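Let's practice the habit of predicting before peeking. Look at the sequence and jot down your guess about where helices and strands might fall. Then scroll down.
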Amino acid sequence: MTDEIISVIGGKQTSGTPGDVYESVNPAHLDEVVARVGLADAETFAAACRTAAAAQTKWAAVPAPVRGRVIASIGRLVEANAETLARLVTREIGKPYAEALGEVREIVDTCDFFLGEGRRLYGQTVPSEMPDKSLFTFRVPVGVAAVITAGNFPVAVPSWYLVPALLAGNAVVWKPAEYAAASAHALHRLFTAAGLPDGVLNLVLTDGATAYRGLETALGEGTVHKVGFTGSTEVGRRIGELCGRHLQSPCLELGGKNPMVVMPDADLDLAVEGALFAGFGTAGQRCTSLGTVIVHESVREEFLTRYTRAVADAAIGDPSGDVLCGPLLDERFAARFEEYLGWIGPHHSVVSGPVGRITPDNPRRNFTGEGGLYYHPVVVDGVRPDDRLFLEETFGPIVGVTGFTTLEEAIGLANRPGYGLSSSIYTTDPKAAFRFRSGIGAGMVSVNNSTSGAEAHLPFGGNGKSGNGSRQSGVWVLDQFTRWQALNWDYSGRLQKAQMDVAEIIPDLDFRL
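Done guessing? Here is the structure:
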């Protein structure tokens, strides 16, 4: 069955420009159209921001604990529809069902955390330096948040923005990836079923370039007060530049070239398990996917032997089954991955077997990949610090391997690409773990765990090429969707001037015992 979906603005369906239709297809079965998506134009995006701005004031006036109960209802609705939503995610982007179900669970966890934050949007009472005067601070919503998300986590990552933004009293205009539009549309329906007033959460289905033009208009009109973006570093830079021209600081969650350091004392079986999941789960299409394994020379050969064996044994195939990974997300990512494979040079050693798309002429054992965007997992040994394979994000199932001799060298290699999202070290030495933590530039560090994996109450985000230091999840994300407002209340009946009319107690600084 093919869905016909269009944008939803102010509670009403809004058609795109006639003829502008995007077909979201199942990457595991390319002949299956999951949804026909009517694409909106730039003016529709800008209009959605105006609608959100008009609705935001009334939503902010709803007491925060009541908004928290709406968030709780969203969580219960998602939980009740978890299997249906997960199956749609699997069908639309090819994510294995077990992973898709875990992604849906992340929404529930996020709602469970934030339902209580409606009663904890705390300010502070601050002592004044003058008598008969009180000082207060308040968290206030920013206004309208424009949220633009990628499709590799089509429902979990959007919830990291939508839930706290709505809880804090903001209205939202959400632009999901076109190739994950059906999943986004379903999630929007679940959110609105929880009782959100019309105009508080608006769904705009369009392409990236059109959304950028619409966002430029909205920022110029003053109807957007915060931008949240998850996607590539290249596009993130453009979003950051646009926001900077309007004196706004966006929340940017960008790409990664996430390192995993394997120390000589590491549990190699555990390290291999982590490298397998981090490198090839979701077909290597996570922002936290493993980029390069940096392994100590004393255990490099043994690690490679075990890792290549694990990769060879891993199940790849239809995502509705019990597999490590399914297809790539979309034709555009398959084409880009073909380019990354072209970065493999003569000095590299592909230790994992066949390379490229899985086809009847290039099968993976008995699996021919017919009808889908399936690719062989690739492990490349011998990557060097100046290789593109070492320095740049490779969104897909490819992992590089290089060696080191000292921990300081490993930290230098881990930081060299300039990304700073996630990182990992496998060791049984606490001193090595803490030295790695203090030296690595990543926003997230794992010890004896993979580079992938987030929890709803822990800050998520990166530095350098991976973001601008903003954080999602947990209480930290509230700094993205609220502003601090200060209030001073003088009840002395006279004008008291700060730093001037302050009582002074004179000490005798010349006193000695």
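How did you do? Residues 129 and 498 are 8 Å apart (CA to CA).
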